[in-house]
Specification:
Belongs to the DNA polymerase type-Y family. GO terms for molecular function: DNA-directed DNA polymerase activity. By secondary structure, the protein is an alpha/beta fold. The protein has four domains: 51 residues, no CATH class; 79 residues, DNA polymerase, domain 1, CATH 1.10.150.810; 99 residues, Alpha-Beta Plaits (2-Layer Sandwich), CATH 3.30.70.270; 63 residues, MutS, DNA mismatch repair protein, domain I. It has a five-stranded mixed sheet with strand order 5-6-1-7-8. A three-stranded mixed sheet has the order 3-2-4, sandwiched between helices. Helix 8 packs antiparallel against helix 10. It binds a DNA duplex through helix 3, helix 7 and helix 13.
DNA sequence: AATAGAAGGACCC
DNA sequence: AACCAGGGTCCTTCTTCA
């Protein structure tokens, strides 16, 4: 029944969430300028107003949560805290550090494929895959000017022009990317014939057997893996995260991107100190909306901060969701075999071999 | 009372 | 000068039907 009311004052909070996420290589003054340009070019569009409407609904939901939060009595909070602590002990007790998982993420995949086939795009060329209406992937050179995936091309063009450079567009060519994805997969198979293809530029590999068989560390396997991918594709780089769970491996794959790797040691202490300072948004499954809820209702920005608010977390969310978040905060998620079929096994549904990252309800 | 869809979100690349 | 994707999976909630 709430009438959707959009106040003028709500605008900044919504545009500030657009295309401003941190990537490297920009000063604060640049970022402010980029934000301003994106806002100026977006503010009158239908798309922007739709976005504001959604943000407003989320705001209402947050306000309702806040109210509930304030009503929680001390006793109630205490019992939620005990429940949370029991759950944490249980989850921690079942922590599985036995497997070595890798998450492989191709660097600027579409752009890298294009550059590989067109020498005029090599080096530090400022270009984007996509068109003036929508950008799919930006070259690293273009990212320095604030160009991002899912950004309208005409805005990207303006960002570059303001910086005195011109942005070149390259049309998307899916068959090309699938071809390179298949080449990369021939490399993945050398390490894990049953790897999980999460998307065309991302995969999970269980390196446990490979490491045991060759008597090498996860770090060494990651180095070999990156080398094999480079060779199989004749020039594409990727970033690799190594950890005892797929969730941690995925987060780790982002740490030294591009063309790098990062290992989270398979020890409880190392895992906890790796995940603690992580912004909540890094957790797969926590997106724009959930991040806002957690920050604006509980005041939590990082995993450690949310862990400190575990009682309220349990009070406000369903048991299922609370459990899901708590395990993520401990660095747990996706240790065991994946619930669905893997590469090389007969497909149940036939068409799509791709799986999402982690069907939740799965045993942790 | 249990359940199977459908619809609507959130989230991912 | 105009101009803001499209492919998915999964979860929650609502509705319906035997």
């Amino acid at each position: 029944m709430a009438t959707v009311r959009i106040s003028a004052a709500a605008a900044p909070s919504s545009f500030s969430t657009l295309f401003t996420h941190e990537k490297a290589g920009m000063s604060n003054v640049d970022k402010e300028k980029i934000k301003r340009i994106v806002y100026e070019m977006s503010k009158d569009s239908a798309h922007f107003k739709e976005q504001e409407r959604r943000d407003q609904r989320v705001t209402e939901h947050i306000n309702a949560c806040r109210e509930r939060h304030q009503r929680i009595g001390a006793d109630e909070l205490k019992s939620h805290e005990q429940r949370a602590d029991r759950l944490l002990v249980e989850l921690d007790g079942h922590r599985n550090l036995e497997r070595t998982w890798a998450c492989v993420d191709m660097d600027a995949f579409f752009a890298a494929c294009e550059a590989l086939e067109d020498p005029s795009l090599r080096g530090d060329v400022v270009f984007a895959v996509g068109g003036t209406s929508m950008i799919s992937t930006a070259s690293y050179a273009a990212r320095r000017y604030g160009v991002r995936s899912a950004m309208p091309g005409f805005i990207a063009q303006r960002l570059c022009r303001e910086a005195g450079v011109s942005l070149r567009f390259v049309p998307v060519d899916f068959p090309k990317y699938l071809k390179f994805a298949e080449l990369a997969r021939t490399a993945f198979r050398l390490f894990d014939p049953h790897f999980i293809a999460a998307s065309c530029d991302e995969a999970f590999l269980d390196l446990t057997d490979y490491c045991a068989h060759h008597a090498i560390s996860g770090a060494e396997a990651a180095t070999r893996l990156r080398h094999q991918v480079l060779e199989a594709t004749r020039g594409l780089t990727c970033s690799v995260g190594i950890a005892s769970s797929r969730m941690l491996a995925k987060i780790a794959s982002d740490v030294n991107k591009p063309n790098g790797q990062y290992v989270v040691p398979a020890e409880r202490e190392a895992i906890v100190s790796f995940i603690g300072p992580m912004p909540l948004r890094k957790i797969p499954g926590i997106g724009r909306v959930t991040e806002r809820v957690l920050r604006e209702v509980l005041g939590a920005e990082t995993c450690a901060e949310l862990l400190a608010k575990r009682a309220a977390l349990c009070a406000l969310f369903t048991a299922r969701v609370a459990r899901e978040h708590l395990s993520a905060l401990l660095g747990i998620g996706g240790e065991g075999p994946p619930p669905l079929q893997r590469e090389g096994e007969p497909s149940q549904k036939g068409v799509s071999q791709e799986r999402t990252f982690e069907p939740t309800g799965a045993p942790l």
